[in-house]
Amino acid sequence: MKTKLTALAVTTALVAPAAIADEMTIVSWGGAYSKSQLRAYHEPYSEKTGVTIINDDSSSGAVAKLRAMNEANNVTWDVVDVVAADAIRLCDEGLAMEIDADSMLAAAPDGTSASEDFGDLLVSDCFIPQIVYSTTFGYRTDLVGDTAPSSICDVFDTAAYPGKRSLEKNPINNMEWALLCDGVAKDAVYDVLATPEGQDQALAKLDTIKDNVIWWSAGADTPQLLADGEVVMGSTYNGRLFSVIEEQKQPVAMLWDAQVFDLDGWIIPTGLSEERQARALDYIMFATDTQRLADQAKYISYGPARKSSAPLVGQHADLGIDMAPHMPTDPENAKNTFLYNYEFWADYRDDIDAKFQAWLAK
């Protein structure tokens, strides 16, 4: 397979400019995250190539939509931003093309190969890592009384912290946090969650706060709910909370305890024409080089996925503040992290999601 992919990459590099599509649809998550991609990747790429980029904020439903597009033989997306577990699922189902990192992605400035530079973050043959981020909680500093929350289990303590919480409308992270706060040891969470009894245990714990939850589907929802004072605390991606705290200056603070580390990156759908695939590969080569990944950290507090990018992370482009202390990987923030299990969710997502949605509907 690698020989075939290398040949494809060489062929792509030799395609005449007129044979490469001059418009592409890039799918991502919206909000502050898409804005960071726009400034770090899309705008400079369009300036360099003249290509028109259409932004689509549908990543939260990417797996289902790509399945439907494939079934209809009408794939309208060119590059799609997904979390690692979804990339594994799409790859397993043949809905994402395989990537040979060392021929299709740029080497580091010192010549280090892309596969070595990305290292263990290449968790799927189809996944091009972009950022390390975390899902964690923000809380309203003016609504939590004299003692700010310090533990993930404070989310489940409605006596000490009355008011609404916001949680993502899917089982991922919620189930893990529920088990942690129901006494399951961190290193046993996925073993427990693999059983029907463990799944029921997690849902029973979530039942204790279900009446106090506003469910969100887009990463921008919780920051808005916090800014409006509609929730006292809520989960979302750490970069979204950075935006509401540092850029919008809202009375919000971070709860880093049991933050869940995860990877986000690109896939290229299968089923594209030769011209569209050539454009997608050209964009990926550009957008995931060492400097571009470091550039995204100027606009949002996510760690770049390449080792060679880390030393280039400096200050926020507009605020002038050092970005390193706002990264989920900062030692002070990473004292008690929870490591997301990509393989578990790739294997169990469909079944647990059906069970979770049925529980929500009760």
Description:
There is one protein chain. Strands 1, 2, 3, 4, 5, 6, 7, 8, 9 and 10 form a ten-stranded mixed β-sheet that branches. The protein is of the alpha/beta class and 362 residues long. It has helices at residues 2-14, 31-49, 62-71, 84-92, 101-104, 114-118, 174-180, 189-193, 196-207, 221-227, 238-247, 274-287, 290-296, 342-361; strands spanning 23-27, 52-56, 79-83, 128-140, 165-168, 213-216, 233-237, 252-267, 303-304, 338-339. α2 links the parallel β1 (23-27) and β2. The model is unreliable at 1-18 (pLDDT under 50).
How would you briefly describe this protein structure?
With 362 residues, the chain is α/β, with parallel strands linked by helices.
What characteristics describe this protein?
362 residues; alpha/beta; 10-stranded mixed beta sheet; 14 helices; globular
Lay out the secondary structure.
Blueprint: H1 2-14, E1 23-27, H2 31-49, E2 52-56, H3 62-71, E3 79-83, H4 84-92, H5 101-104, H6 114-118, E4 128-140, E5 165-168, H7 174-180, H8 189-193, H9 196-207, E6 213-216, H10 221-227, E7 233-237, H11 238-247, E8 252-267, H12 274-287, H13 290-296, E9 303-304, E10 338-339, H14 342-361
Parallel strand pairs: 1-2, 1-3, 5-6, 5-7, 8-10
Antiparallel strand pairs: 3-8, 4-7, 4-8, 4-9
